[in-house]
Every structure is written in structure tokens, then in C-alpha cells.
Amino acid sequence: MLSERRLQVLRAIVQDYVGTEEPVGSKALTERHNLGVSPATVRNDMAALEDEGFIAQPHTSAGRIPTDKGYRLFVDKLAGVKPMTAPERRAIQNFLDGAVDLDDVVARTVRLLAQLTRQVAVVQYPSLTRSTVRHVELLALAPARLMLVLITDTGRVEQRMVDCPAPFGEASLADLRARLNSRVAGRRFSDVPRLVEDLADAFENEDRGTVTTVLSTLLETLVEENEERLMIGGTANLTRFGHDFPLVIRPVLEALEEQVVLLKLLGEAGDSGMTVRIGHENAYEGLNSTSVVSVGYGSGGEAVAKLGVVGPTRMDYPGTMGAVRAVARYVGQILAES
Amino acid sequence: MLSERRLQVLRAIVQDYVGTEEPVGSKALTERHNLGVSPATVRNDMAALEDEGFIAQPHTSAGRIPTDKGYRLFVDKLAGVKPMTAPERRAIQNFLDGAVDLDDVVARTVRLLAQLTRQVAVVQYPSLTRSTVRHVELLALAPARLMLVLITDTGRVEQRMVDCPAPFGEASLADLRARLNSRVAGRRFSDVPRLVEDLADAFENEDRGTVTTVLSTLLETLVEENEERLMIGGTANLTRFGHDFPLVIRPVLEALEEQVVLLKLLGEAGDSGMTVRIGHENAYEGLNSTSVVSVGYGSGGEAVAKLGVVGPTRMDYPGTMGAVRAVARYVGQILAES
DNA sequence: CCTGGCACTCTTCGCATCCGAGTGCCAGCG
DNA sequence: CGCTGGCACTCGGATGCGAAGAGTGCCAGG
């Protein structure tokens, strides 16, 4: 078990290292923090912390830097979430308030988060399955070609082409449209499959094929793979990563381009509350030298999607967590209003 | 005026430098290319080329590297466009053929282009104003809230919320929808403003406000700033940029995040044929050490948007141009089919 | 006009050296 | 028992020097 002072030493090491980006030694520590003990004592504490795996030396005769395990302890026990200042809150609100539609909200959020944290921001669009249906529309583009448009309460609009097996009359179309909406409008998307399963039964034989096709397209839209979208920004911040650019930055950029990887990353994060994944805690290898701070956001009490940032393990955790949390809250509010 | 051989020397310098990324000297040149003259002669030629500003020395006693002006001459006079091989063509076609909707087409195109050229790919969505209206739909989400959906022949779908000044009945809505479509369906977007300007006159006083609002929203959608979208990819390729990472890569990433900058960049490029902008020819300062190769693409003979790549000035121009041209052609085909 | 030769310029690299930061350990003190 | 000052030690990074090598410019001769 680590004594109180050793925890303080660890905290001091993390803070200094995050600030200076350089290994921190015992002398510098005692000078910059009021630990009330001498460097020699701190050295003993550091040796103990190193034995436990919380810190490490890049080389003999260099200072110590925190390990992933050290950051983990820091985040869990030694540091809270730094709240945003009042001006910062106002700035966030002002910035987000101008958004005109969902795309705009997400785009602004990404920008904001990237600026606040000076890291790479990732914002997921509201998940379809966790949203509520506002409206389903069917348009006939051609006699045997329909367009299916889904609109959610969170402002998402998805469209799909549907090629019908046979021409589909305007009357049947109106009928289907009305029946569809009466069944699913106002309901959760996750309930949609159940609500529409017997809808084809109500139609004549010749139209049944088309109705079935429309319904299966509708359901396809809700399949995991397709329904998730996200936006990233602030990649220019990667250049402030460290001195050993290419090798670190490369896999990160690759990961960011693979939406699948990112979605999995966000998906693995806890469903409620803020999640911090540090270095090797990330399953994806390319992100082993980064930390991911993410949190769910939503219009009501419930999360409809996640957002977060990706940055070097050496990041200002309290500040980053504060920014991420604050942004998530305001985005939730904006969505609730629209 | 430069003699034929001097041009050959320049061509050889460009080719070697692009291959090795290192300044090339007179001796290496005579060894790798059959110039039929001695290094000393080549040195004289190089001195002349340097006087003319086509090549430069990083330091005294280093080899030469091409300047922007040198690349320009190379592209204009010394090198053609390298056509894709048959297998490459097939690969392109296969890769693009699987796309299910416009987003998918664009996403696949970006990926493909990034992979083929190993550079950053930029693909603009088909411009609204240059497309044809396929359908305009109006949905009543609430009594005084409409959604306007625009569908183009290129598969683009744009939606906008419209808050009406007064509730708008279903009958009026159907009327407006029908009138709108009969006027604009099949017409070019650029003609839409003219075609709808007197549409409000046909409605009762109480509905006229709403109709006007709808029309102005429709027109807003076509405004330059909003109508253009683009997608980028392959940013991981930036890591192969050169040895002097951070300083070069940073502004490029920043430029790529500013869609406005990119759109302007593509917009400045010639409207027909392939455009190559080399280094300082790019108006945006952050891209002064990059070259942009872009070309229009379209479903018919006419370009509806542009695509291209951004890479180091030291790039394989013939190969890159070949890839860009080939991809643009196939994308045009795909769009024409859908 | 081309060529071989030659002197000159710089950059790069290896090597030896020095300096300092930081450590671990120990003996002594409260 | 824990803290402290002292001390020897290690090692990385900076500095300086010299040799090597690549490449150039220029010149005289074919």
C-alpha cells in the first residue's frame, strides 16, 4: 500500500511531466511542490513507485515519467474533473447555439472540442436505434423506384433508395405511408422491427412484394454497421504530440480514418459516465500511445451517442475531462431544444 | 532557350529526386540515365538550369533538387500522363461498382484515390447548381413545420427544416408540392430561381407567407457556401511527406480541416481538363510545399464537381495524374448509371 | 562543344571529451 | 523507524575536431 505522501509525489510527477514534457527528477519536484521533505526522501518514494510500476525512467540517470498504470491511478484517485470556468461555459453555449441543423451541431461540436482540448475530437451522430422516430416518408421517384426517408427526434435524416419488384401505385403508396407512420411515429427505433413485422399482410398480393422490400430496407438502415456515423476534427493537433512524430502519428491517423475502429473504441467505453482509456488499455494497437476520453450525450437523461477526444497519454486529464463533460452537456441541451 | 539535352537533364533530375528523395548529383545522373555525355558536361547543363531557376542546391556541395518552376516545366513539357494498367483499371471499377448510394460512392472514391496515389485524396460532392432536379419533396413534420427535401440526378439528397409563419394545410401542401415539381423536376438547379420566382402568386393570402418562406429556404440551399460538400481521406499518407515533419504537415492538416480553403482550392482549378498546382502556385500559404492535382468529373460530358489529391511537390506527377484522371472517369460512369 | 582533371567547399560522421542531472546507497540524527 | 545530507556513480547530451565523401566550378585540351 502506498502512503499518502507517495501518492502526492505521483500526482506531482504527473502534473510536472504533463506540463514540461520532460522526465522529472527529485530535486525539481521538491522545488516546485511543497512536499515538506527533502529530495532524498522523494527519491526513496520514487524508487518505491517505480517498483510498483507507476513510473519509469527512460534512461538511467534521467528523471521519471508516469507509466500507463501511473496515469490510471492519477485519474482514478488523485485528480478530479476540472470544471469549466464561467466564461468558458458561455463560450461553449454561444458557439453551439448558432447551429442550424444536426450536421451543423456535430460539426460545431467537433471544432469546439478540438479547440478546447487542443486534441483530436471525435463526435458520434445520435444513434438511430436509441432515437425516436419522428416521421417516415416514402417518395416515388419513378414508378418502381421509391426513396425512403427516416427522420428522428434528434434531427438525423437518413435516406435509402428502394427498387420495387413491381410498379407501385400512388394509392398504395399513400396507404403504406399512412400505415407506417401511424405505427412507428413517436416510437423508439429499437421497437420498429417489432412494430412493422406484420405490415405486409394488410396489402394485396401484387403490392406485397414491394412492401416487403421497403420494410427490409427500413430494417437494414437500422443495422449496426450502417446506422452509426461520426465526425472527427482537430487532427492538426496531432503535430503537438511529441518529438517522435512519424512513428506515433501514423497509426493514429490510420485509426482515425477507420470509422469502424473508432466506433468500436467508443462502443467499448462505458455506457454511462465518463470513460478514460489510457495507452495500452486501448484494444487497438495503433492507439497504444494515446488516451481516449469519452462520454455519452443525449437530449434527455439517456445517452444517444458518444463524443470524446484522442490525445497523447501525457495529457491534462482533469482539464480534458472537464471540457468533454461540459461539451457533452451542452450538446445534449441543444438536441433537446430542436 | 534550353537545348534538348538540358531538358533531358531536368527530366532525369526530377525523376531521380522523386524516387530517392535526395539531391541528385551530376555523376549519379550519368550513371542512371543514358545521356551520352560526361558528368562534367552535365554539370555545365545543371549550372545553366540553375541560372534559369529550374533547379537549386540545398547547400553548396550538395546535389540539385527541382524548384517549383522546374516541376512546372516537367509537368508541362517533359512528362505525359501515365495511363493506368489494365489490372489497375479493373481494380478501380470493381472497387467503385459496389457502392450503394452517393455517400458510398464518394467515400469509396476517396479511399481508392488515397490508396492509388498514396497521397491525401479530396473528393467534392456533385455541385447542386450544376445538377438536375429529380424531385422536390415537402413533408409536414408539424402543422407549422415542414421539411424540404431535394433530390438530384446525381443522387445527392439535401434536407432543410422550414418553420412556417402560419399553419399550412395538407391540401395547400399537396398543391405546392405538385406545382413545385411540375416546374422544376428535370430542370437544372441553376434555373430553379428563375422558375419559381412567381410561384407564391398562385396561393391564397394566408398561405403566401409560408410559400415564400419555403421558396427562400430552397434558394438558400443553392447558395454557394452551403451547397458544396467534400470528403477527404488518406491523411495518414502525410507521414510519408519528408523528414521535416511537423512544420510541413501542420499547416496541411489545418488546411484540410478548413473546407472553405479546400473548396476555394478546387474552385480555382480550371473547369475542364486536369489542373496541377505546384508549391507556391497554391494561393493558400499552408500548401506552399504541396502540389494539388485536380480534375472535374461528371456523369455526362460536363463536370459536376472536382476531385484530386494533395501531396508533396516531390511527387510522381505522371502516375498521380494518371490515377486521378482514371478515377474521375470511372466515378463519372458510376454516377451516370445510378 | 565536350571532356578529364583538379582544387575547393561543405556536410556528415565518428570519436573523444566534458559536463551535469539524476540516481542509489549509506551513515547519522531525531 | 523514517528522514536527511553526503557521496560516488552512471549515462545521456553537448561540444569540438578531424577525416571522409560528395559534389561543384573552372580550366585547359581535344
- With helices defined by DSSP (H or I, 4 residues minimum), what is the helix count of chain A? 13
| Sheet/helix structural class of chain A | alpha+beta
How much of the sequence lies in strands of chain A comes to: 15-25%
Q: What proportion of the residues of chain A is helical, as a percent range? A: 40-55%
Structural shape of chain A: elongated
Main sheet attributes: strand count, strand direction, barrel closure of chain A = 5 strands, antiparallel
Which oligomeric state applies? homodimer
Structural commentary:
Two copies of one chain form a homodimer. By secondary structure, the first copy, chain A, is an alpha+beta fold. The first copy, chain A, is built from 13 helices and ten strands. A five-stranded antiparallel beta sheet of chain A has the order 7-3-10-9-8, sandwiched between helices. In chain A, strands 4-5-6 form a three-stranded antiparallel beta sheet. The longest helix of chain A has 21 residues. Chains A and B meet through strand 4, strand 5, strand 6 and helix 11 of A and strand 4, strand 5, strand 6 and helix 11 of B. Chain A binds a DNA duplex (30 and 30 nucleotides) through helix 2 and helix 3.
